Amino acid sequence: MESFLFIGLPYISIGLFLFGTIARFRSSLYSISSQSSQFLEHRALRWGSTAWHIGIILILLAHIAVVLAPGLWTGLMSNKTILLVTESTGIALSLLCLIGILVLAVRRLVFSKVQAVTTNMDLVVLGLLFVQVGLGLAVALKHKWGAAWATGTVVPYLWSILTLKPRAELVTEMPLLVKAHVVGGFAFIALIPFSRLIHMLTAPVHYLLREPQLVVWSNLSRTREAVIAQAYDSRRFFLRGFVATGAGATMLAVGVMDKLVRFFQGPKLSKEQEAALMEEKLIRIKSTVEQRELEYERLKNDYIYVCRVSDLDARVGRYFTDFEMRPALAFRDEDGLPLLISAKCTHLGCTIANELSADGKILCPCHISYFDIKTGQPNEGSPAKSPLPHLDWVIFDSQGNLLAQRNSSGVTIETKDLALLLQQGSLYIVKNLDKRV
Amino acid sequence: MKVRAQIAMVFHLDKCIGCHTCSVACKNIWTDRPGAEYMWWNNVETKPGTGYPTKWEDQETYRGGWKRSNGRLKLRAQDKVSALLKLFYDPNQPGLDDYYEPWTYRYSDLFDAPEGDDQPTARPVSLITGEYIDIEAGPNWDDDLSGSPVYAENDPNLDKLTEEERAQLFEIERVSMMYLPRICNHCANPSCVASCPSGALYKRGEDGIVLVNQEKCRGWRACISACPYKKVYYNWQTGKSEKCILCYPRLETGQAPACFHSCVGRIRYMGVLLVDADLIPEVMQVPDEGLVEAQRRALLDPYDEKVVSAALRAGISEEFIEAAQKSPVWKYVCEWKLALPLHIEYRTMPMLFYVPPLLPVMGKAIGKAYSNATEALFTSLEHSRLPIKYLASLFSAGNEEIIVAVMKKLMAVRYFKRAQELADVCADEVRKLLREADLSPEVAEEIYKMTALPTVYERYVLPPIQREEMMESFCDPDLCKGTAGVELVQLNRRSS
User: I want to staple B185 with a disulfide (CB 3.0 to 4.6 A). Which of B49, B319, B347, B350 is the partner?
Assistant: First the structure.
């Protein structure tokens, strides 16, 4: 289901959008219009349409800016003031949009003249836009600082879609609201060519540069004659046209040839570059192997070795990977026994830092949540709302005898020789401890 | 000199009887469709009156046409940036209420109503919503209602009159009126074209007809407020703008437009004018009083050798030049200087000219009898029933001298012919009148003939638009027969 929503749906939407738009522009230009109903009703439209359009255009431009220049955007958003201003502007604009579209929707349902030009698709579009803007606002309010975190999560996902290497896992772990907003966005893209939304593709920006008067000659041969006569009258016109066309054509030809030649020659690398490339590939393969080995180990074994009990530290936790391939931390508790806690932040899944603060808390560096390692609870007012879970463990001696274990009912020590346990014992995490022992 | 051919028109208002045959001919051919019911590409108004749409001349509200600013012409409605903001909501666009809500009657009720105590009636229903409506306005709602305090007194052209003049105009026994038939002026400097954000409106190079490309129009509606004559209409059903096309499919086959063809009073003339396109920006910038003269300066003499050779160089065919030489419009506008543009102060350089009406000006009520003869001749102009100032506000941007000159000519021609036919005006008087009007007896005779006795071929001098020749450049005329006008309509392809 998720791979359909986050890989299938995007490609279906983009495909529908591209083919639908091209088909509509090629076959039925006549059908493309803003379909303004100001003529039939203008009092409500004045407020609704203006509020909606100003709000949504600015919001969409901001969305596009994030996707196109995430680096620049992250830089800007690292400034706290800018981040604050951006977030509050965004919230204000989406409120403006919501009010606008509400006015437009009510107007469409109330005035009988406007009803006369309302299609079912208009109602679908109004509904979808309302839900989509509402979701966007909800995300902004519930999961704060989206302007900052989006560059690390949703933007790479969108790029992975656009570069045809879809990585749904970048969003599948996100909160439900964010996921719904992403899905809504793709539904919106798919609707564009089949509804009045297509008018936004014909925004008349070229008007800014246009000459005021427009004369069209029906007779093609006369058009040619007119051009020649004009050229005859003013050489400058001809020269300018010639130079501009020539320059354009040359640049185009050089660009195309450059790509063509390189394509047929193949890449040419120096020895150093080749070696570096090879090294890079090897490192990537090795890390994949390590990853797969860890996964294999966790599939095959019921116990996974973490470290010796004596190696644990009270202040600096040891990272290890649990059975679900998630990061976790191992500390030495006050009684010398191990304390294992998940290191995956319950907010947006960042890995938590391993140094214990003076008041016994660990920090998620992404959005500054502090977690108490005793209880796992985040501090008051942090972005994360739920506690980090503790992990179960067992300790064996070198002969494989069970010395101690922790499960949901608590810690049980099986040996009398506590010193031996602390010096010689080896710490393991265990799959489904409760059922096993 | 950049010569352009322009199909231009003259309406002779003295001959208009206000019968609306032109409007109905146009409606039946072009605007009898869903979304276009309220449109009247041709309409006839009673003046003084508020017109259609109501108070269309009030440019404080609608902001149509051009204004002068720092030595340049600028659209009154918008600059380039505000044009983009107005896409969402255009504060100057007239709404349906400014025209009227189109309606029909439930005629079927007359036959299907169950038996009852009352006569069945056909109640009016809106053509937009299909609901019952109370009719509150209609096309030409103020027809013949001059003197009405609701309609005539709100005519924006009366703003320049003094209280006294207004009181006189509406004095019950003096009330007078005239008819003003209006179609698209096919301006040489159209503000609708300049305002269109999508570039859908354009002027045809060959004949100067202003058209809306329906495939390019995106319904941004800028043209509707930018046209000061309110002759571009928004089709509420298709979401596109529409306007008078000067019946170009008829013109291309050598027929006069439907409104011309059907005109009962034969008030309409059509012919070619040669316009110097290079001069247009310059002549449209002179102060208001000079605009009529300045516009004439941009119209080129078709008999001038230099103009003819420049026209040929610009690709205008010899047939067009010949038509320009025979054009009744050239005679009325530039030779006789009788025909004047409507509201030239909007600076769009309209190509439809009006011969102002003499009758309400000349007529007087002496005692209870209506008298058309004048003892003091020209002094009556100052005491005319329809003030010269009012006509000047319509036809000469407030320049009363121009109107007086036209009236003198019209009156001189009338007395010249009266002396010939009835011999009740003495010859000296007539000579004096002609001299004061700056007319020779030959020209007066010519004006009389063109006004009273023209044949259909003298009224409509239509150049051949050479469809076949135009088609040749993209398709064999034999193959494209029936599929192409001046442009390719649609190629008939064999479907697979």
Answer: B350
Mutation to test the B interface, candidates A31, A97, A207, most B Cβ within 10 Å: A207
Q: Could B95 and A115 be called an inter-chain contact, meaning their C-beta atoms sit closer than 8 Å? A: no
**Domain layout of chain A by residue ranges:** 2-208, 220-265, 271-296, 301-436
Nearest by CB to residue B236, choosing from A40, A49, A217, is: A40
**A203 contacts in chain B (CB < 8 Å):** 87
Q: What average pLDDT does range B69-82 have in this prediction?
A: 90
Between CA A406 and CA A392 the distance in angstroms is 5
Closest CB from A36, A49, A207 relative to B221: A36
**How far A225 CA sits from the closest chain B CA (Å)?**
7
A2-208 belongs to which homologous superfamily?
Transmembrane di-heme cytochromes, Chain C (1.20.950.20)
- Tell me whether residues A208 and B80 touch, CB distance under 8 A: yes
A26 vs B contacts (CB less than 8 Å): none
Of B194, B216, B239, the CB nearest to A34: B239
Q: How confident is the model at residue B385 (pLDDT cuts 50, 70, 90)?
A: confident
Mutate to test the interface with A, among B198, B317, B319 (most CBs of A within 10 A): B198
Residues of B in contact with A113 (CB under 8 A): 96, 128-129
Does residue B361 register a pLDDT over 70? no
Q: Which residue has the tokens 């230009």?
A: A29
| Prediction pTM value | 0.75
Strands B66-69 and B72-75: antiparallel
Is there a cis peptide before residue B48, judged by omega within 30 degrees of 0? yes
Q: Note the pLDDT tens digit of each residue in B455-465.
A: 999 999 998 87
Residue-by-residue pLDDT tens, chain A, 437 positions: 788 899 999 999 999 999 999 999 988 888 999 999 999 999 999 999 999 999 999 999 999 999 998 888 888 888 888 889 999 999 999 999 999 999 999 999 999 999 999 999 999 999 999 999 999 999 999 888 888 888 888 899 999 999 998 888 888 888 999 999 999 999 999 999 999 999 999 999 989 888 888 888 766 555 555 555 554 556 666 777 889 899 999 999 998 888 888 778 777 788 898 899 999 999 999 999 998 988 888 888 888 888 888 888 888 888 888 888 888 999 888 887 888 888 898 888 888 888 888 888 888 888 888 898 888 888 888 888 888 888 888 888 878 788 888 877 778 887 777 777 777 788 888 876 555 44
Nearest CA to CA, how far is B163 from chain A (Å)? 36
> Longest C-alpha distance within chain A, in Å?
110
- CATH homologous superfamily of A301-436: Rieske [2Fe-2S] iron-sulphur domain (2.102.10.10)
CB–CB contact A38 B93 (8 Å): yes
- Per-residue pLDDT at A174: 87
**Secondary structure class of B28 (helix, strand, coil):** helix
State the Cα–Cα distance between residues B132 and B210, nearest whole angstrom.
Answer: 37
Cβ neighbours of A406 (radius 10 Å):
20
Among B90, B189, B204, beta carbon nearest to A38: B90
CA distance A77 to chain B (A): 30
A and B: number of Cβ contacts within 8 A = 148
Q: What distance in Å separates residue B414's CA from the closest CA in chain A?
A: 42
